[in-house]
From TrEMBL, chains A, B:
SUPFAM superfamilies in the record: Putative DNA-binding domain
Any one GO MF annotation of this record: DNA binding
Keyword vocabulary terms for this entry: DNA-binding, Transcription, Transcription regulation
Protein species of origin: Phytoactinopolyspora halophila
One matching Pfam family: MerR
Protein name: Heavy metal-responsive transcriptional regulator
PROSITE patterns with a match to the protein in the record: HTH_MERR_2
Residue ranges of domain HTH merR-type in the record: 1-69
Entry-linked PANTHER family: HEAVY METAL-DEPENDENT TRANSCRIPTIONAL REGULATOR HI_0293-RELATED (PTHR30204:SF94), REDOX-CYCLING DRUG-SENSING TRANSCRIPTIONAL ACTIVATOR SOXR (PTHR30204)
Length: 130, 130
DNA sequence: TCGTTCGTTCCAGTAAACTGGAAGGTTCAG
DNA sequence: CTGAACCTTCCAGTTTACTGGAACGAACGA
């Protein structure tokens, strides 16, 4: 299968697939006599896995680590377990931060409705002193 | 005041302050005969405002826009009101996305505890089929 | 005078995940 | 034979907010 077909089947672009190869997420495939990449259908699953892992919030670097472990013949599950916990903590922390930001913004929005723009002194009374 | 003192008073670095100047967030200050930046104490407030706006989740670009309006003599509050609403929506959407990711991860973590690593088939049964 | 610490400029790099474009080769239909 | 639709490589840019480093000048205390 040529790169275009793989791209279509996996819902990506040829650019991205070459990028993944560059980033060692995909092995360098066979080449046709013309020099075109000639993929085994297996890579479709591999790319699907990459997408799954991305949806779970892993970076490509982490996905690469998991894939490396698997390619080495080991079961990556223990490592994945660590990553899941790490990532879960990061996500929870980030949610907390964002909720904080949201509360700040909601307060600003309230002030915006109450304030006469003409009263805006200093840099901006909406934002200041928050 | 020299750049180091400003940095210390505002809790930043000299690097960052030069970067802000480059990014048009701070006006180019006077120079001493030796070519050192010689700031008016006013910039301390300006930098504090930048920090406030960042805490509310605005990008430096947006802060720059607000500052530009103010520097032009207009009251930026109307514009700020728009930005606040925009940003509030973005933040809420992002929180929703992250909560989704968190739920996925929590499910993965549960699976991790239940699964025997030896059963890991395919790419990784923890992540797959999520 | 020496050393330290402050300041200056400019260039380059970081993370993340691509994306765009140039300049060219290949394959196939009409 | 021509044109399109595919493929190739390589280089550079996108976004955000800085950060690091080189190579240098200035101010000041001992």
């Amino acid at each position: 299968m040529l790169i275009g077909e793989i791209a279509q089947r996996t819902g990506t672009t040829t650019k991205t697939l070459r990028f993944y190869e560059d980033a060692k997420l995909l092995p360098a495939p066979q080449r046709t006599p013309a020099g075109y990449r000639d993929y085994s259908p297996d890579v479709v699953d591999r790319i699907a896995f990459i997408h799954d892992a991305q949806k779970a919030g892993f970076t490509l670097r982490q996905v690469g680590q998991i894939l490396d472990i698997r390619d080495g013949g080991e079961s990556p599950c223990v490592h994945v377990g660590h990553l899941v916990h790490q990532r879960l903590e990061e996500v929870e922390q980030r949610i907390t931060e964002l909720e904080h930001t949201r509360d700040r913004l909601a307060a600003l929005a309230r002030r915006t409705r109450e304030l006469d723009p003409a009263d805006c002194g200093g840099y901006c009374t909406i934002i200041e002193a928050t």
